[in-house]
Amino acid sequence: MSGTDSAESATRLSAHFDATIAHDQRIEPRDWMPDGYRATLVRQIAQHAHSEIIGMQPEGEWITKAPSLRRKAILFAKVQDEAGHGLYLYSAAETLGIDRDELTERLLQGRQKYSSIFNYPTLSFADVGVIGWFVDGAAICNQVPLCRSSYGPYARAMVRVCKEESFHQRQGFELLLTMMRGTEAQRAQVQDAVDRWWWPSLMMFGPPDDDSPNSAQSMAWKIKRHSNDELRRRFVDMTVPQAEFLGVTLPDPELRWNEERGTHDFGTPDYAELMRVIKGDGPCNAQRMERRTKAHEDGAWVREAAAAHAAKQQALRETTKEGTAA
Ligand code: BYC
Predict the structure, then answer these.
(1) Distance from the CA of 77 to the center of ligand 1, in angstroms?
(2) N or C end of the chain: smaller count of CB under 10 Å?
(3) 206 C-alpha to center of ligand 1: Å?
(4) What is the pLDDT of residues 245-292, one digit of tens each?
(5) Residues 181-214: tens digit of each pLDDT
(6) 267 C-beta neighbours (distance < 10 Å), count
(7) Between residues 320 and 75, which one has the greater pLDDT?
(8) What letters, b where the CB count within 10 A reaches 16 and e where it falls short, cover 179-192?
(9) What is the torsional sign of CA 114, 115, 121, 126?
(10) Where are the chain's structural domains?
(11) How much is the pLDDT for 2?
């Protein structure tokens, strides 16, 4: 192909990509895409997958300490769902030409991130309820629009993830309702958990729009459909009536309904804290990464056994093929 031909073909491909995005159609793995689009998706999907897997730790700690068989079974199912979400997401990332081993390496070497929220400790069983209510609630606000993300495999993975997150949120709320109908001490535990998790949950949506280096391009490519601040505001609007129903106070003196704007006004999260936690200096970062690394090392024999099994099956298929050809 001459230089002019390849330049024309690149222009055609790029115009086709732009038109697909403009018409709200999906980009699929075999389609041409700009390098930046691919890199942004790998970054976001990997961050999301790592969050699901690391996110199993704070609640997982309570499986052996759950107060009843029913609560244990529910929590077990939820934590298993998070593992499943991580796997769908790693599979979605693999369609972009990067494998899960490489993504895991990048996480373990600190070259990729996971959500700040999972660096906070779970101090009582009420935290399990509040994680379901706030963290899964925030995840729903963030991820329902991702079902319309422009990249097909990511958008499709999000549909099932969101259905499961919705169950997770309700189980959290139901747990808290039960505790709020219990003893004074249980109500105090719920309020304490709400006080500790509220601001970190608002930080899950990322830095404010003016300090979000990736938002404008991600929204132009329709990977993200709404800005960080818009989603944060939706989360507050969704959560306030739920808090009233539950009978807890959200720890924000600036929180009030703004009749004129038809939304809540609320205080500013401590974004310096968010940046510190993202950089590794949160209450549990070291422990989370230590456990993730240990789980990966402990799983080495499973990966080796799976690879040996796959090689045997491949050799068997080749021998059978040769036999049939002869
Ligand atoms: N924590 O330009 P920005 C779950 C990073 S899993 C850590 O706004 P972007 C669940 C950001 O990555 C929850 N890092 O970025 C699981 C970027 O750094 P890099 C996870 C954060 O990508 C188990 C830099 O800061 N959900 O729901 O446009 C149990 C600048 O930010 C955070 C997802 O991952 C943070 N909070 O927007 C229960 C959803 N915020 O990558 C629940 C998908 C920002 O340039 N992800 N950063 O080095 C997203 O929607 C977006 O990636 C974000 C950030 C809204 C998180």
Answers:
(1) 24
(2) C
(3) 6
(4) 999 999 999 999 999 999 999 999 999 999 999 999 999 999 999 999
(5) 999 999 999 999 999 999 999 999 999 999 999 9
(6) 13
(7) 75
(8) bbeeeeebbebbbe
(9) negative
(10) 11-282, 283-325
(11) 65
Rounded to the nearest angstrom, the distance between the alpha carbon of 75 and the centre of ligand 1 is 24
* Ligand 1, pocket-test mutation among 37, 44, 168, most atoms within 8 A of CB: 44
- Ligand 1 lined by 210 (C-beta under 6 Å): no
Average pLDDT of span 295-303: 96
CA distance 207 to 165: 23
3: pLDDT strictly greater than 70: no
What is the model's pLDDT at position 326? 64
Please indicate whether residue 52, judged by its CB atom, sits closer than 6 Å to ligand 1: yes
Q: Which overall architecture, per CATH, does domain 11-282 show?
A: Up-down Bundle (1.20)
